């Protein structure tokens, strides 16, 4: 079937060309708690490529969130370099980081973080409004993405009049609507049951694959991580191993 | 981010906490209303005072006297300080001076029918005559001397047989200015000599028949600037005096050291018309510097104005305190609101909302609180002002004059709203900076 082949060829092209999009060199994050130093990250090096679906896996407290936050420019590293799309972000000022996220990054939260006063369409359109897009145009785009995540019927629901799974779909639509090059997700399915988790995961993977975007997902669930192209295993703030997965189960996801 | 989107977000946030917003706005309403009402009272008091002064006389005129005229000058040649036609022309050339009217008074006796009186005729310029509000008649045309009578002059006529006047009998003299001529005796001394009887009785001087040109507006007891004088064109008066006295000295005109009259007319006063109230003091000072005495209403007004400025300041200050308290209320509300929305602010920051936009969102919010308070406060101020002016009659009680005690001019209304918005924004400024600097990590944490 064609459907199977198309993502396969794209993936292989991406792997063959291997355009680096995130490069991390010798990254440290040290927290001071009183007298003691906590090495949340203790020297991390890796590269992520365009169109890849990467999972960051590890036990609780290993530094996964810390790593993701620094990649998204939410926290400053103590030492080391982060190069995203050929730009060093570790030296950027806060307003530059905000502009960087606005232009290139989508973010999916564990606790959805929709704005309670807005309905689904307005929530998805919100990051577009930060770019100064006029109301009609951004609502059109928002509706398109809400359809994509299967929420035609809930478009005008207020954020807290939706189930967790539905809210997370809105969250995904919100992250995707700005057409970011990279999407970060910190335990996006952490608050969902296993059935919804699988649905959400498949949804994210499908859309990201279709649009050739890079998805970086943090999880402590090895099973979920196994859906990724590569798994970055972190233990005690260090990369323990990077595991490549070959996706025979691609069909299973579909 | 577009301004409209910012505004919508801010207003939505305010609507989310209706009661809290309403209470904060209430603070601003009270603040704005008290400032506006206090200032409007200050303006009202000041305006009432000005109106009072305006009723005493024109506020844009300066009256000039010469020291020499009354012999009060000890200078060597008093001639230099006389108010002559020459000097009047000189005054006219000064900046901000519209025109100058000389004042030439002559003491006469007037008779009509059974009534007579002693009165001064004042010769003034045409411009001056034109400023006098007339009840009937008009400013005289041509060279013939005609008189304009003040509306209270009629009180001064008395019956020449009984000697009883209005003040004795309470009856007004039966005088018809407009339809009957007035008999005027200019040479008053000669007249009294002729009345004296005995040996050195002389021939009575000639009476002149002079027609009226008009009567000043107002009832016989209505005081105004012109009510107690009889006016005529100064040129016609000069011609008349020259014709009557020929080479003899004209009464009330100064003489030189040898007791001889001067070959020209010397005026006791000149009235200088200034283009604007604001320039009156300057012109007055210039005239004083030129060596004349000069008076104007302005000098009194300025003194009172200083007093009223003080009152204004005190009243405004009292109002400002409540506005200040309202500002603290706004700041407090904004801090609360930011505290509540820490997570939300973090989220929009993660999603790429510009830091300036976040700050502006909160500034608009606090500015909007100020705006609403300003508008409602202004409406209340207008209502209170209306009640004070129309039902309480405070103006009557405090100043003894008719008029509005509380006045809200357009500039006050506009600046009240502008100021309310400003107060809101200033009060919201530090909270908004704080919101701008909130860490985006707050969005990530799960509480
Ligand atoms: N603000 C902070 N101050 C001090 N220590 C911190 C801070 N944030 C994180 N840490 C420490 O850094 C380490 C890594 O934390 P991190 O949140 O990245 O873990 P994680 O891998 O995301 O764990 P989990 O799976 O439970 O979310 C932990 O030991 C934590 O205690
Ligand atoms: Mg974590």
Describe the 3D structure:
The complex is a heterodimer of chains A (about 250) and B (about 450). With about 250 residues, chain A is an alpha/beta fold. Chain A has one domain: 3-Layer(aba) Sandwich (Rossmann fold), CATH 3.40.50.300. Chain A is built from nine helices and ten strands. In chain A, strands 6-7-8-3-9-10 form a six-stranded mixed beta sheet, with helices on both faces. A four-stranded antiparallel beta sheet of chain A has the order 2-1-4-5, covered by helices on one side. In chain A, helix 7 (about 195-210) links the parallel strand 7 and strand 8 (about 215-220). Chain A is globular. The two termini of chain A are about 15 Å apart. Residues about 1-5 of chain A have low confidence and may be disordered. Chain B is built from 13 helices and twelve strands. Chain B folds into two domains: about 5-55 and about 305-445, no CATH class; about 60-295, no CATH class. With about 450 residues, chain B is α+β, with helices and mostly antiparallel strands. In chain B, strands 1, 2, 3, 4, 5, 6, 7, 8, 9, 10, 11 and 12 form a twelve-stranded mixed beta sheet that branches. The longest helix of chain B has about 45 residues, at about 295-340. The interface of A and B includes residues 75, 103, 111, 130 and 135 of A. Adenosine-5'-triphosphate (ATP) binds next to strand 1, strand 2 and helix 2 of chain A. Magnesium ion binds near residues 64 and 65 of chain A.
């Amino acid at each position: 079937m064609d459907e199977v082949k198309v993502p396969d060829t794209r993936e292989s092209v991406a792997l063959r060309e291997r355009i680096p999009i995130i490069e991390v060199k010798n990254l440290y994050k040290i927290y001071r708690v009183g007298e003691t130093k906590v090495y949340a990250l203790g020297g991390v090096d890796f590269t992520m490529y365009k169109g890849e679906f990467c999972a960051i896996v590890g036990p609780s407290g290993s530094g996964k969130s810390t790593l993701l936050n620094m990649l998204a420019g939410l926290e400053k590293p103590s030492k080391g370099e982060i190069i995203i799309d050929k730009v060093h972000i570790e030296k950027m000022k806060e307003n530059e980081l905000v502009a960087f996220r606005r232009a290139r990054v989508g973010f999916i939260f564990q606790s959805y973080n929709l704005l309670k006063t807005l309905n689904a369409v307005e929530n998805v359109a919100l990051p577009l409004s930060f770019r100064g897009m006029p109301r009609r145009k951004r609502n059109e785009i928002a509706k398109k993405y809400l359809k994509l995540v299967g929420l035609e019927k809930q478009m005008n629901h207020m954020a807290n009049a939706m189930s967790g799974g539905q809210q997370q779909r809105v969250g995904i639509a919100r992250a995707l609507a700005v057409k970011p090059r990279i999407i970060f997700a910190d335990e996006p399915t952490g608050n969902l049951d296993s059935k919804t988790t699988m649905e959400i995961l498949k949804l994210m993977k499908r859309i990201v694959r279709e649009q050739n975007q890079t998805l970086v997902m943090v999880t402590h669930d090895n099973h979920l991580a196994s859906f990724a192209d590569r798994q970055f295993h972190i233990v005690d703030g260090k990369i323990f191993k990077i595991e490549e997965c070959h996706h025979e189960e691609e069909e299973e996801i579909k | 981010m577009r301004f409209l989107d910012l505004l919508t977000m801010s207003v939505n946030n305010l609507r989310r906490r209706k009661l809290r917003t309403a209470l904060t706005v209430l603070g601003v309403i009270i603040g704005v209303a008290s400032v506006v009402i206090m200032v409007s009272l200050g303006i009202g008091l000041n305006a009432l005072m000005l109106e009072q002064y305006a009723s005493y006389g024109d506020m844009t005129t300066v009256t000039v006297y010469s020291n020499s005229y009354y012999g009060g000058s000890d200078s060597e040649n008093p001639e230099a300080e006389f108010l002559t036609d020459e000097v009047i022309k000189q005054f006219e050339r000064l900046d901000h001076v519209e025109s100058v009217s000389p004042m030439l008074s002559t003491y006469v006796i007037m008779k009509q029918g059974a009534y007579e009186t002693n009165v001064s005729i004042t010769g003034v310029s045409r411009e001056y005559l034109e400023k006098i509000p007339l009840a009937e008649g008009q400013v005289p045309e041509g060279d013939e001397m005609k008189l304009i009578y003040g509306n209270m002059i009629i009180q001064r006529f008395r019956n020449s047989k009984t000697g009883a006047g209005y003040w004795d009998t309470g009856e007004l003299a039966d005088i018809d200015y407009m339809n009957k001529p007035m008999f005027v005796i200019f040479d008053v001394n000669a007249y009294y000599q002729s009345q004296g009887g005995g040996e050195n009785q002389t021939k009575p001087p000639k009476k002149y028949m002079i027609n009226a040109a008009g009567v000043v507006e107002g009832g016989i007891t209505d005081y105004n600037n012109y009510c107690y004088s009889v006016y005529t064109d100064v040129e016609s008066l000069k011609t008349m005096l020259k014709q009557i006295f020929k080479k003899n000295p004209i009464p009330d005109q100064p003489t030189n050291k040898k007791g001889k009259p001067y070959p020209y007319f010397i005026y006791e006063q000149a009235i200088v018309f200034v283009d604007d109230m604001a320039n009156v003091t300057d012109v007055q000072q210039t005239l004083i510097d030129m060596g004349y005495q000069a008076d104007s209403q302005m000098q009194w007004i300025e003194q009172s104005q200083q007093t009223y400025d003080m009152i204004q300041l005190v009243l405004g200050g009292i109002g400002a305190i409540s506005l200040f308290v309202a500002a603290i209320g706004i700041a407090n509300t904004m801090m609360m609101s930011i505290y509540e929305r820490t997570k939300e602010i973090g989220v929009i920051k993660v999603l790429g909302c510009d830091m300036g936009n976040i700050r502006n969102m909160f500034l608009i919010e606090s500015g909007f609180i100020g705006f609403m308070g300003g508008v409602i406060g202004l409406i209340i101020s207008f209502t209170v002002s209306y009640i004070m002016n129309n039902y309480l009659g405070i103006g009557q009680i405090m100043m003894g004059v008719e008029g509005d005690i509380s006045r809200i001019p357009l500039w006050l209304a506009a600046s009240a709203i502008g100021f309310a918005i400003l107060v809101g924004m200033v009060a919201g400024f530090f909270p908004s900076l704080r919101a701008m600097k909130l860490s985006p990590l707050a969005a990530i944490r799960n509480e």
